[in-house]
Amino acid sequence: MIGKWKMESSENFDEYMKALDVNVMLRKMASTASPTVEISEQGGTFQLTTSTAFKTTTITFRLGEQFDEETADGRKVKSTMTWEDGTLVHDQKGDTEKGQKDTVLRRTFDGEGDTMTLKCTVDDITATRVYKREK
Q1: Most exposed: 37, 85, 116, 134, by fewest CB within 10 Å?
Q2: Neighbours of 90 (CB within 10 A)
Q3: CA distance 92 to 101
Q4: Cα separation of 51 and 68, whole Å?
Q5: What kind and span of H or E run contains 130?
Q6: Where is the Cytosolic fatty-acid binding proteins domain (predicted)?
Q7: Coil, strand, or helix at residue 43?
Q8: For all residues of the chain together, what is the average pLDDT?
Q9: Residue in 111, 107, 113 with CA at minimum distance from that of residue 130
Q10: In angstroms, rounded to a whole number, what is the distance separating the alpha carbons of residues 97 and 33?
Q11: In terms of CATH, what superfamily is 3-129?
Q12: How far apart are CA 72 and CA 29, in angstroms?
């Protein structure tokens, strides 16, 4: 999973963002963006940086340890990352008192190591984004 990844395709992302109550302006910007994701690791601490022309977000984490995260759309969540059978599972717990929803982001890496498939799920809605490794 370590490396740099460029988004190749995206399905159902606008519906996913609507379910999270992301405003229409942010949804339009996000729908036109083609993110690059860079994942690095040093001494068991990982860094995941997502970059677009509009915004760059970085999270730093250790597998299995909860951390505070501010999502690209501004939600403040409690997140935990785990590694399950070739999939990096990113569990985001929203603040239910503020009406925020829980989300799960699953980044699955193919056996060849050149494709990362990101499935973003909230309620019964799943968006799929496919990334290719940059050489």
Answers
A1: 85
A2: 20
A3: 9
A4: 19
A5: strand 125-133
A6: 3-20
A7: coil
A8: 93
A9: 107
A10: 31
A11: Calycin beta-barrel core domain (2.40.128.20)
A12: 11
Confidence of residue 14 (pLDDT cuts 50, 70, 90): very high
The owner of tokens 């809605």 is: 125
Question: Which amino acid does the sequence have at 118?
Answer: L
Whole-angstrom Cα distance, residue 16 to residue 122?
7
Tokens of 23: 């405003």
* Token pair belonging to 98: 């503020």
Joined tokens for residue 107: 């980044």
Could you list the beta-strand ranges (E) of 45-112: 45-51, 56-61, 67-70, 76-84, 87-93, 103-109
pTM: 0.92
